Amino acid sequence: MLEFVVSFQVADALEQPFPDEQFDLVWSMESGEHMPDKMKFVSELARVAAPGGIIAIVTWCHRDLLPSEKSLRPDEVSLLKRICDAYYLPAWCSAADYVKIAESLSLQVDI
């Protein structure tokens, strides 16, 4: 029979207290939307992931922009601002933005 050891620790996701390359699986569930610095957030996840490890990010995002778009529509910006203001959230990004961040960190992306 397999045994697993599980522990929980409260820490700053942007300054994690774990050593480099510590975990085979790094799972982030609905926390990216709370991070003011998405690049730092993903960088920390990558830092604590072991070589060949898996990083899973499940987070609220706004839609990906079309190639012809430079930004979200004003009504979308307004709605996101209302949500962010109500829940004290920093700006959101798209899934495509997370992919760009991951690729800039030389991470292999699998969606």
General description of the model:
The protein has 111 residues and is of the alpha+beta class. The chain has one domain (23-104). The chain has helices at 38-48, 74-87, 95-104, and strands at residues 23-29, 49-58. It has a two-stranded parallel ribbon with strand order 1-2. The model has no long low-confidence stretch (mean pLDDT 96). Belongs to the class I-like SAM-binding methyltransferase superfamily. gTMT family. Pfam families: Methyltransf_11. GO terms for molecular function: S-adenosylmethionine-dependent methyltransferase activity. It comes from Colocasia esculenta.
First-to-last CA distance: 32 Å
Biggest sheet record? 2 strands, parallel
**Largest beta sheet: what is the strand line-up?**
1-2
Counting H and I runs of at least 4 residues, what is the number of helices? 3
Low-confidence stretches: none
H/E element sequence = EHEHH
Number of strands: 2
Counting helices, strands and paired strands, the structural category is alpha+beta
GO molecular function, one term: S-adenosylmethionine-dependent methyltransferase activity
Organism: Colocasia esculenta (Wild taro)
Region (SAM motif III): 48-57
Keywords: Methyltransferase, S-adenosyl-L-methionine, Transferase
